[in-house]
Design goal:
The protein contains 14 helices and 24 strands. The chain is α/β, with parallel strands linked by helices and 423 residues long. The structure holds uridine-diphosphate-2(N-acetylglucosaminyl) butyric acid.
């Protein structure tokens, strides 16, 4: 297993290109199952999660090829499809559940393994099941698999979700594109990745309105066509790299960055004393003067502060002046990075969904362990600002969601390298 060695060495200066969004791409790829014609995605990120989704789609009978080292992915689902998403792939990545809606819509039946829990929480599937059941699917759980079928296809329906789940919104919208009649989803999630999925489905001929609002209306059509679609910028990768100069000092321009993708996060950076300015190429981030100020953060569905930036924000607040409270409202167990940051000298107390962080002047390098994707990058950020060396082990988590992290940070002057093999 690889690890990452980081040496804290002062301010970062330069430019970092931001990739296409992992979480948009993971929803866009299953959309290929809705059409017999090819779907091409450009600006795709080069990540292990994308390779896992590629394997899943291939196991379902889709043809997947890539160009430009994976930046362009072309998928075609014209042949006979296999309706079963196997546990061996689904357990590796929860987003595999996004094939359920498309398979049901295209084939009228699907068998998809339940993903099981993960490091950040139990993450059940009840909201997905209720949403697809509203469209007429009959879903039973047998042998760890969801067995879903319809009587003569899906039928449009009005449905309100009990919580604005990102994945359940994506499954419902994809399924409803080929259902008979009109579907209305209320309390829908509003994340930019859902807006991007709808833009792509529209290019494929779907009739959808209301993306980015809590009510999405879908008029079912009989078939979808092929399309080419550029994946939206990864707002979580963007926020992560915006935090690098915030923690280390210096000035970094994040190429392709947009404030509208991260308005709540940018407000917190401003309150902490970090300047964010729009440029022609993206967003320029700089720490104004002296230490960062403490700020309180509550994670919420979009447009609130994203849970996927909570760990990285905590790394920043570890060296802020004063005490910050971070409240995690999306996942029940997403503070696994706190004890690792404490190994580096951070002062953090966790009580249930709240973490209280009392800033210290300086963190100290230490061997630490990544527990999940966002935790892993928060430890790298902390290491960049710490005195001495930090070795982050279990970086396979990092490779799921960040491409070429060492290269991007080194280009701005960071001392960071990958150590092959080891613990
Ligand atoms: N939930 C249920 N039942 C369901 C579905 C969700 O109780 O049927 C709960 C979850 O357990 C969780 C909350 O609702 O506590 C939010 O889950 P949601 O369905 O919105 O999340 P998701 O679709 O599973 C996506 C991202 C996550 C991101 C969340 C929240 C993808 C592939 N994943 O997950 O990304 O944290 O939305 O914004 O889009 C990451 O990239 O590191 C990551 C975890």
């Amino acid at each position: 297993m690889d690890s990452i060695l980081v040496k804290g060495n002062g301010p970062l200066n330069g430019a970092i290109p931001i990739a296409g969004a992992k979480n948009a791409c993971l929803a866009l790829m299953p959309a290929t199952l809705l059409s017999e014609e090819p779907l091409t995605l450009t600006n795709a990120p080069r990540l292990s999660d994308i390779r896992t989704m590629t394997s899943l789609l291939q196991s379902l009978g889709a043809e997947v090829s890539s160009l430009q080292d994976g930046k362009v992915i072309t998928m075609s689902s014209h042949g006979v499809l296999n309706p079963t998403a196997d546990y061996d792939i689904v357990r590796k990545m929860r987003a595999s559940n996004l094939v359920l809606g498309p398979l049901l819509a295209r084939l009228g039946h699907a068998v998809v393994s339940l993903p099981g829990g993960c490091a950040i929480g139990a993450r059940p599937m009840d909201i997905h099941i209720d949403a697809l059941a509203a469209l007429g699917a009959e879903i039973d759980l047998r042998d760890g698999y969801l067995h879903a079928k319809t009587q003569g296809g899906l039928t449009g329906a009005v449905h309100e979700m009990r919580f604005a789940s990102v994945g359940a919104t994506e499954n419902f919208v994809m399924a409803a594109t080929l259902a008979k009649g009109t579907s209305v989803l209320s309390n829908a999630a509003r994340e930019p990745e859902i807006v991007d999925l709808v833009h792509c489905l529209r290019r494929m001929g779907a009739e959808i309105e209301g993306e980015g609002t809590p009510t999405i209306t879908i008029q079912g059509v009989t078939a979808l066509r092929g399309a080419t679609h550029p994946v939206v910028t990864d707002r979580i990768e963007l926020g992560t790299y915006m935090l690098a100069p915030a923690i280390c000092g210096g000035e970094v321009e994040c190429l392709g960055g947009r404030i509208d993708l991260l308005a709540a996060f940018c407000e917190k950076l401003d309150a902490a004393g970090i300047s964010v300015t729009e440029t022609e190429r993206g967003l320029k981030v700089a720490r104004r003067n002296g230490r960062v100020r403490a700020v309180d953060v509550v994670t919420e569905p979009f447009p609130g502060f994203p849970t996927d930036l909570q760990a990285q924000m905590m790394a920043l607040l570890c060296t802020a002046e004063g005490t910050s409270v971070l409240e995690e409202r999306i996942f029940e167990n997403r503070f696994m990075h706190a004890p690792e940051l404490m190994r580096m000298g951070a002062r953090i107390e966790v009580h249930g969904g709240h973490a209280t962080v009392t800033g210290v002047e300086r963190l100290r390098g230490a061997p630490v362990m990544a527990t999940d994707l966002r935790a892993s990058v928060s430890l790298i950020l902390a290491g960049l600002a710490a005195e001495g060396e930090t070795v982050v082990s279990r970086v396979y988590h990092l490779d799921r969601g960040y491409e070429r992290v060492e290269e991007k940070l080194s280009a701005c002057g960071a001392k960071i390298e990958r150590i092959k093999g080891g613990a």
